[in-house]
């Protein structure tokens, strides 16, 4: 059995969660998913900086620093012999008698575990099918909140339509996927929704922005509508687990895997190799 981190301790046995935990009752918490390549955390610091930001935005006070979290994860990765896998980190506001208001006293509950996971190479090579659908989420998508019902319903809708992801539209504007950021390439430039309250500013998105700058490819943080999506030269999505994944079909329209997407994939690969 693998080692997990739960509330300050490294445990091998199963753990128990209080049914009054606010994560369980309200989705009152935040999370991160971090990638491990060859036993090393990829952009771990950036993920924990974002975790601390998400916590601050919902007023959960955390004692641990980025370095503390990094040390916990490095120990889990080593003890569980993770070579290629993921780390899941979640923090809830803790347990208290059910009441919407923040409890006067509750300790945050932290749970971190690791698991093996191969890179989704087939989708990265051939592309994936996506659907378009209304963005039915709340207005603080910049927080990586445990509240994922809108995301869950839309991803399920994509699956039922034979796709793997849903590109979401708010008032006709493309925001992002349910667990990924969305981009189009038009005349050699990359376009993606600005990092505001309507999207989660992906760490992978930030790596892509750096790669684009290094290669001299314009990276334009400007929103675009559904017509622009369908008129794109290339479309791709990104996240920690799918890296840079081309889109080969949106609803009924096919798209080719294009050269800008492939260049970004190569640049991303180099960032992994440089770990
Ligand atoms: C986590 C997430 C992403 C991707 O973020 P990464 O840091 O690149 O993994 C994009 N959109 C949503 C809604 C997410 O939850």
UniProtKB/TrEMBL annotation:
GO terms for molecular function: D-alanine-2-oxoglutarate aminotransferase activity; pyridoxal phosphate binding. Its EC number is 2.6.1.21. It comes from the Bacteria. Keywords: Aminotransferase, Pyridoxal phosphate, Transferase. InterPro entries: Aminotrans_IV, Aminotrans_IV_CS, Aminotransferase-like, BCAT-like_C, BCAT-like_N, Class-IV_PLP-Dep_Aminotrnsfr, D_amino_transT. It catalyses: D-alanine + 2-oxoglutarate = D-glutamate + pyruvate. One of its GO terms (biological process) is amino acid biosynthetic process. The keyword Transferase applies. Its cofactor is pyridoxal 5'-phosphate. It holds the Pfam family Aminotran_4. GO terms for cellular component: cytosol. Belongs to the class-IV pyridoxal-phosphate-dependent aminotransferase family. Acts on the D-isomers of alanine, leucine, aspartate, glutamate, aminobutyrate, norvaline and asparagine. The enzyme transfers an amino group from a substrate D-amino acid to the pyridoxal phosphate cofactor to form pyridoxamine and an alpha-keto acid in the first half-reaction. The second half-reaction is the reverse of the first, transferring the amino group from the pyridoxamine to a second alpha-keto acid to form the product D-amino acid via a ping-pong mechanism. This is an important process in the formation of D-alanine and D-glutamate, which are essential bacterial cell wall components. Homodimer. This is D-alanine aminotransferase. It comes from Macrococcus hajekii.
């Amino acid at each position: 059995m693998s080692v997990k981190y739960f509330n300050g301790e490294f445990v091998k046995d199963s753990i128990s969660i209080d049914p009054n935990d606010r994560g369980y009752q309200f989705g009152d918490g935040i999370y991160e998913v971090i990638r491990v390549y060859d036993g090393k955390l990829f952009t771990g610091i950036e993920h924990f900086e974002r975790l601390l930001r998400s916590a601050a935005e919902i007023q959960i006070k955390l004692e641990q620093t980025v370095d503390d979290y990094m040390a916990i994860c490095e120990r889990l990765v080593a003890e569980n012999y993770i070579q290629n896998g993921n780390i899941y980190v979640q923090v809830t506001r803790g347990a208290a008698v059910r009441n919407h208001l923040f409890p006067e006293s509750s300790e945050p509950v932290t749970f971190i575990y690791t698991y093996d996971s191969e890179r989704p190479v087939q989708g990265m090579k051939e592309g994936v099918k996506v659907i378009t659908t209304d963005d039915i989420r709340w207005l603080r998508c910049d927080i990586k909140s445990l509240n994922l019902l809108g995301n869950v319903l839309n991803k399920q809708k994509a699956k039922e339509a034979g796709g793997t992801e849903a590109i979401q539209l708010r008032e006709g504007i493309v925001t992002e996927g349910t667990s990924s950021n969305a981009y189009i390439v038009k005349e050699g430039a990359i376009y993606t929704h600005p990092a505001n309250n309507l999207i989660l500013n992906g760490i992978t998105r930030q790596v892509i922005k750096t790669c684009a700058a290094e290669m001299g490819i314009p990276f334009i943080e400007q929103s675009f509508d559904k017509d622009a999506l369908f008129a794109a030269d290339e479309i791709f999505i990104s996240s920690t687990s799918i890296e840079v994944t081309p889109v080969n079909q949106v609803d009924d329209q096919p798209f080719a895997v294009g050269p800008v997407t492939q260049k970004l994939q190569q640049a991303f690969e180099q960032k992994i190799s440089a770990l």
